Fold this protein.
Amino acid sequence: MLALPLVLVSCSTSKLVPEGEYILNKVEVVSDSADYEAGALKQYVRQKEKPKLFSLFKNPFSRKPVVYDSLQARLSCQDLLTAMQNQGFMHAGVSLYTSTNKKKLDATYVLHPGEPFRIGKVDYNIEDEGILHLLESKLADKQSDKQTLKPGMRFSVDALDNERKRITSLLTDHGYFRFNKDFIYYSADTIAGRSDVAVTLHLMKYRASSSMPETEHPRYTIRHINYLSNDSDRIHLRNQVLLNATAMKEGKPYSASALQRTYNNFGRLQAVKYTNIRFSEVADSLLDCNIQVSTNKPSTISFQPEGTNTAGDLGAAASLTYTNRNLFRGSEQFSVELRGAFEAITGLEGYQDQNYTEYSVESKLVFPRFVAPFLSKSFRRRQTANSELSVSWDLQNRPEFHRRVFSTAWRYRWTEPRHHLAWRFDLLDLNYVYMPWISETFKRDFLDNADNRNAILRYNYEDLFIMKMGFGLTYSDGVDAFRLNVESSGNLLGAFSKAMHLKVNSEGQRTFINIAYAQYAKFDFDYTHLLQFDRRNALALHAGIGVAYPYGNSKVLPFEKRYFSGGANSVRGWGVRELGPGKYKGRDGRIDFINQTGDLKLDLNAEYRTSLFWKFEGALFVDAGNIWTLRDYKEQPGGQFKLDEFYKQIAAAYGLGIRLNFDYFILRFDMGMKAINPAYESGDEHWAIIHPKLSRDFAFHFAVGLPF
């Protein structure tokens, strides 16, 4: 390693920094090779500069400055050198350059990786005959592509260790209960003047202890599987449920991956509190598997009060929930939730009642498996699935109207943990919306007023029947995440009504049981990418698009299916349902919540996140997006999507946030400012970033969880 002398510049005395010491202002890790990614090695630098974010504030947001330590710098050089050698750059070097300005110091670590060493010949020295035959059979079984150590690849510690892990995993999945990777070691041989390495993998015979002789590695078979209760003499689960959750089989070789799947399967059962699995050696190469199961209390009752605030109207709500986690002794979860809410509504005139009340009952039955015909037992055992039946009845009484909503659904959910995938399939989702009463004042002012023929408004205050099917897919590996959702409604009813020549109402809509049904298709996609700079700092990038199209029996989307923009999870310079569609500007606060909805949505977000102190985290964000309608509605002028105009109507906002991260949940406070406002009446309002006005452009948001 080449060590360069430090160049120090004399400066004046500081009250905060002792004479002869310097504040670490900037740290860089660069490489003299354009093909080498030096930034990934910054984690090996022991001293880093203080984050610039929130540095303008005093405590508690600011932290003490980092004082440069030459000893830590030299140790950092050694750590960087070791890291490159572990990557196969055996002739690497590190240089350290520093420069000072007054009492601040910039440190630059320059990496000289050189040419990497590559693996030449690969040999396997397997001393155990049984293991040798198993590995040869796997190679003959066309599994050689799984071999991670191949000639020509870069010689590195990770490459060697990955092959050790591969062989260890293979053996522990084929009965070698006592095998571990310490039985594998490597020898390497290099030729002077060459950059290839001949590698030999050595697999030693089994030795129970240092005083015992070497033998063949024992291969174990499961003799018996016993189920024991930690709570009583009897496990309150059907025997078939226990068998389905157990991935290991009697008479089959021991498997470490089957053991892990067994733990995962039992962990999914709501009736199970925890599971402990032990093995006992009963004879030569035979194991008894003892599965101890501790179950939860079958029934619980919970009560949860909450406060509400809807557009400044305060209220309270409470829910009472009964849950049975083992209804049919198969870990089926049955729940019934009763909920009531009250809200005092202000600002309404001409209405008899000034309050909002809501009562609802919802029941769910969740099976921890696929409940469906035509599925094989092997398929059911391989899948981590839930089948859910739900039924709910909701009564809403507002001064303007009374609404009743009946819902029922049958859906499936299953996961593929190895691929970080989660699936959802809504086989049937029914919603019946019934409007038993509408205030005469509301009908006169809005629904029947000839000067206010609002098709969108009227559609949402009529009886409606929604019968949909849906499909959802989510993926998340901690760095990349996406969510896909597709649903359609009314197609089966449309085909049935046409075939049966069902009635057509005055609006030209076909009806089912004398109620018009909704017909639409909807598609949503969200993608998030996380750039993790270090343990404390990250940049989250998000893009989301959604489009829904009413057709056939519908000219307008149901209100619950329409998109809105603004709020804590959208463009944060606007409040909820305050942005869009397009360049539409709300005029009537009483019905803007209806008009400021659309058929198409676009969200673009970038958020820099940093840890501050204790549980506090900070964020800087930039948001962009809007909603549009696909059809031209006269009550939403300027709201229709047009290919040659939509980009001019994309709103933008910026701001900062404070979060309290308690690991199991996050409290989020975001303060947003409008930057570009597409619904403007003046140039100052349009370019709010140049002409900011706090009373006009500021929005505060409180939420639970991250926005994306």
The chain has five domains: 23-112, 118-203, 221-295, 297-399, 562-708. Confidence is low (pLDDT under 50) at residues 1-15, 53-62.
